[in-house]
TrEMBL record:
Protein name in the entry: RRM domain-containing protein
InterPro entries linked: Nucleotide-bd_a/b_plait_sf (IPR012677), RBD_domain_sf (IPR035979), RRM_dom (IPR000504), RRM_HNRPC/RALY_subfam (IPR051186)
Assigned keywords, A-Z: Coiled coil, RNA-binding
PROSITE patterns: RRM
Length: 89
């Protein structure tokens, strides 16, 4: 046990605060990129409370909208596993 807090897989809450603090990550090569990779990349913008990875895309759920906006601004078009991300808040 490393002491790392495991983030939830829940990113689909519909309350307005959750919606505004969630980041969509598109064009993701999920055959290569895993949940832990996403968390490492996006953790620098704030506390992640949820991360869900799907075929070709992922969602990261932050505590605050400010964190989500910073992540979108900082990571839009970043190249991961040879593909540019498509981030949309």
């Amino acid at each position: 046990m490393t002491g790392k807090i495991q983030t939830s897989n829940v990113t689909n809450k519909n309350d307005p605060r959750s919606l505004n603090s969630r980041v969509f990550i598109g064009n993701l090569n999920t055959a290569i990129v895993k949940k832990t990779d996403i968390e490492v990349i996006f953790a620098k913008y704030g506390r992640i409370v949820g991360c869900s990875v799907h075929k070709g895309f992922a969602f990261v759920q932050y505590i605050s909208e400010r964190n989500a906006r910073a992540a979108v601004a900082g990571e839009n078009a970043r190249i991961i596993a040879g593909q540019p991300l498509g981030n949309h808040g």
